[in-house]
Amino acid sequence: RPFVICMAIFVFCFFGITSVHQTMTKVYLQDINTPAYLFGYIFCAYKIIAAIASKLQFKYELKRGVRTLIIFSSMILFAYTSTAIIYSINPTSALSVILVLSIFAVQHISRASCRITLKNYVNTCVSKHSLTRTLTIYSMAECSGYAFTTMITSIIMELSGNSYPITNLSLVGIFILPL
User: Fold this and answer.
1) Per residue in 86-120, pLDDT tens?
2) Longest alpha-carbon distance in the chain
3) Backbone Cα Rg of the chain
């Protein structure tokens, strides 16, 4: 079906590109010399924030409908742009650290909310007998997008060396996400 093909392509691209923020978070925390034992706490806080936002997202989705995806995509695009700007100006100042970590929280919130909105949309657009097959394709596209983008991200990180890897990763998100 054309819907399933378009959904798979969109999920592959969208979640592939939005997965770049996980790599960006790790690189940024390493760049500001965060001790490794704090990584778990930071990522746990992000997941808790995303879980709370996802629970509240349902009310927002009822008001906005499918336009919710556009709003959350715009938030992710804003997060990529502002991260690149802040990181290129002064990545290690206290204000920059607070801003960038807050922006990463926005990315986690937006990504989790988009995942829920997309799955709700798929559930309403697909008949009951083909729902399992469609959700399987959805999951395969999401994981494949993540794997492909992780590979591309690692190549970019290798080529850029230590010269502004966060800015390079942000540029990948800025240029590819609107497509």
Assistant:
1) 777 777 778 888 888 888 888 888 888 888 888 87
2) 55
3) 17
